[in-house]
Specification:
Blueprint (H helix, E strand, L loop, with lengths): L7 H10 L4 E6 L2 E6 L3 E8 L6 E5 L5 H8 L4 E2 L10 E4 L7 H15 L2 H8 L5
Antiparallel strand pairs: 1-2, 2-3, 3-4, 4-6, 5-6
Length: 127
């Protein structure tokens, strides 16, 4: 029997945990990822406040407004954290652009992580 395709949660989890000093634990009943086990940068939302599967993430200033306006099929203003500029990203659409979502997750991390950890992302690996 073949291996099952990864779920959206599996893919979000892999992207988050690939970032330095990231941990996962449940928060409000959903998988949530933290920098240094303290500050949240991505929260999974499996029909948490509606009938959709999504994640909520920290976003650079102005990103929420521009993405929601440009593509409301894929992006939304999440409850509770939307007023702080966080971005909601639907995962249950027919077309999910995983490279774009990887960039959004890294951007979320960069919004929350201390400069010392962000520097590790910008330093090329030693050869």
């Amino acid at each position: 029997m073949g291996k099952e395709a990864p779920t959206a949660l599996d893919q979000v989890r892999a992207l988050c945990l690939a970032l330095p000093e990231t941990t996962e634990r449940l928060s409000h009943g959903e998988p949530t990822w933290f920098v240094r086990d303290k500050k949240t940068f991505v929260m999974f939302a499996d029909q948490h406040h509606d009938d959709r599967q999504a994640f909520w993430c920290a976003a650079p200033e102005g990103a929420q407004e521009s993405l929601v306006e440009a593509d409301p099929t894929h992006f939304f203003r999440p409850p509770y954290v939307g007023h702080r500029g966080w971005l909601g990203v639907y995962l249950d659409t027919p077309t999910t652009d995983w490279p774009l979502l990887a960039d959004l997750i890294e951007d979320a991390y960069r919004q929350i992580a201390p400069k010392s950890l962000i520097a590790t992302l910008d330093t090329p690996p030693a050869q």
